[in-house]
Task: structure prediction
Amino acid sequence: MPIPLFDIRTPLAPLRDAMHEKLTATFDAGAFILGPEVAAFEREFAEYLGTPHAIGVANGTDALVLALRALGIGPGDDVVVPSFTFYASAEAIPLTGARPVFCDVDPETFCVTADTVEAALTPQTRAVIAVHLFGNVAPVADILRLGVPVVEDAAQAAGSRGRGGRAGALGTVGCFSFFPSKNLGGFGDGGLIATADDEIAERVRMLRFHGSRDKQSFELVGHNSRLDELQAALLRVELPHLETWCDGRRAAARHYADAGLGELVSLPVAADGADPAWNLYVVRHERADALGAALQAADIGQKAYYRVPAHRQPAMLPWAAPADLPGTEEAARTHLAIPMSPVLTPEQAGQVVAAARDAGLD
Ligand SMILES: Cc1ncc(COP(=O)(O)O)c(C=O)c1O
Result:
């Protein structure tokens, strides 16, 4: 049987009837922009995270842009960001007028560390974007000790835990994406900003609605970036299941280890104090492409996500200046995502490991 890289449909299948009821009720209520479903989802997600404010926005990229703008970041400011990440983590920075300064990652965790961030600080640094890549959790408390606000890019880490709380509730502001393949995936685009800071929350609420509090007076040049009412309604049906799904992701990682995958490739390492709900299960090997080809031949999903890291993407060249990022280069060269989902079985893990063994890597 083929094994997909991720399985969105199986975990959602039991929720089909509840989702249909929710869609009908939302349709009948007829409030499609910032209605009661968005407000309720914001309350419930804030409670889940253990943070006072959760504010729905249109997608995870906007969450980063609005979070940076709410921190007052703009032209003349530097923002530190890892290069080994999805491009949007870096893209958000020039959209505010600020300059991305790329830092390295630990290739074993795929996350930034306090040391890699510190090496990239400049006198103009006004924030750090700590990406919780693949569901791992960067050491936010250590980075905060450097004295700079931390924007957590928790797009891939809903449900993961770090030292002191959930990913996205550890730093100054947390940013989430509800892109369908994420740990909490919607039926289209969606995002959210979490914070304990009342002023930041107030500014985000304004920024997502054209810089206005009351739709009469426009105090900021803002955005039209709202979480859609229909998405919020469906995400509310899913949220009570997130914890079970995350446990399924943790179990899937154990199935791989139990099946002996660690004898063949380097397994991802949880960052210090982290309990990751792996969104993607990403292994490393010097012959990652050969492994990918062998898995593909066996009908097993696989993907190299970031062979070209963000600082070497064409649009980032103006800000890429002399970046010496050995951990990033190693991770970019050697990583490969293999199947991960809340419902990956021990048998499927065994099948993946057998195919990896047949690849004859060494
Ligand atoms: C690490 C990371 N940051 C930001 C984003 C942007 O999220 P979105 O696609 O919802 O804009 C994504 C996902 O796509 C992501 O994986």
Notes: The radius of gyration is 20 Å. The CA atoms of residues 109 and 186 lie 27 Å apart. The mean pLDDT is 97.
